[in-house]
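[step 3/7] fold_predict: job queued, chain A
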Amino acid sequence: MAVLPRSLAGQAFALQAAVIMLVVMAGSALALFDAKRQGDEAARQQVTAIAVALADAPSTAEAIETGNAAPVLQPVTEAIRKSTGIAFITIMAPDRTRFTHTNPEQIGQKYIGTIEPALRGQTYTEVYTGTLGPSVRTIAPIRSERGQIIGLVAAGITLESLSARWRSQWLMIVGVAAGALALSFVGIWAIRRRVLHQTHGLAPDELRVMYDHHDAILHSVSEGLIVLDRNGVALVNDEARRLLALPAGPITRADLPEFLRGNDPGVRDEVRLTDDRVLVVNRSAVSASESEVVTIRDRTELQGALGELSSLQGFTDSLRAQAHESANKLHTVVTLVEMGRPDEAVKFATQELALSQQLVDRVSDAVSEPALVALLLGKTAEADERGIELTITEETHLPAEALLSPQEMVTVLGNLVDNAMDACDRDDPWVEVTVNQSDERLQIQVADSGPGMDPDTFARARQRGYSTKSDGGAGHQGLGLALVAQIVNRHGGTLSADVTYGSVVTVTIR
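[step 4/7] structure written:
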């Protein structure tokens, strides 16, 4: 039993070669058969035409009626026979007596063959074995002017001559078949090389296993994966559809978010925002196939956790700073006591403590969410260290059932306060914060002493990657207002900016 080659390219070559050989051989056999059939038919038509032409010629009937048939017609028939290449032309009387024959010795002898149909006025063709061997012959009647049958014409070609004619076409048919085989083998050899290059010599089973593994990995990985090529989107896995909210079925570039529609290979860990997610995008070019691989990681929950952690970190830093300051104040108090001035020591110790405790109590009473309390106190301490006057207004009030989650509140308020402290006027630095929820409406308003933003600048600031900081916003990656806008859009709220008593940014959620 023949064994197919191992590689897919080799198997394809072997199967194509077998099919091509079968087709060429069958075609050659059909060509030979058709050549024989057409040769036989052409010979029948030829002898019929010669017989009918001689029978209808007036000179033939005249020669028979005058009694000079043999000497007049023998030279004519031989000339015609030699020019046409047929085997014989015999003109005879109705009683079979030959007037002409290829062999002159047969003249006057009886014709061997069927003549009855011709005697009845029919032109008749048959295969018969005569004096020259088996032949295809046609017998046509010769009529006088009065319509009487006065003779017969038999024209024939031997089967041996027909075989010789047919065999002469073999060489051409075999040559064409050999040429077709050679050309086909060159073509399938080129196909084999291309398939071998594209499949790296892998066997069909190996390709199937590779595809199964590839398909399983694409559907199981926790990262979104998109393959872009010159024709559009070649591949999208399940996680990418989920993260980008893509529809089922084929995906085009128009279905992708705007930041993925263009060709931009080389991007590494770029943070992008959709309507409800924070994504980290990487894009790599595949030069061999002129395509691009895009990987997407979900950073939404991590971003919220980082915001909350940032607020807690700020609060921790403020506590550390206060602890350091408290140590200095404690040394001062101890020294005043040692100097014999206890009243002044008590007054000095309780003055700052009362102010700090008053701020903590007021914020804790106004805001029910501990994470937001920590954020506000931490930002207050940070502002104090930076020489910025941060005020939490008396209108601040947030019940326990807030319209935003603690993580969302930390993200919105933390980013707005950070932006305000970065943008405030350095000659008169102040920031004012108001958080108020009543009548099913949450309003977060942060004002600062900065120059504010015009509508175009504010619109750009809500896009990922934009920052008004002089350092390009490296610390925040230009995500501040973009993250705020994402949360506001998710809840159907509004985000606005204006310049009244300062630069004021307002978030309203209903």
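[step 5/7] annotate
The two ends are 79 Å apart (CA to CA).
The first strand starts at residue 88 and ends at 92.
exit 0
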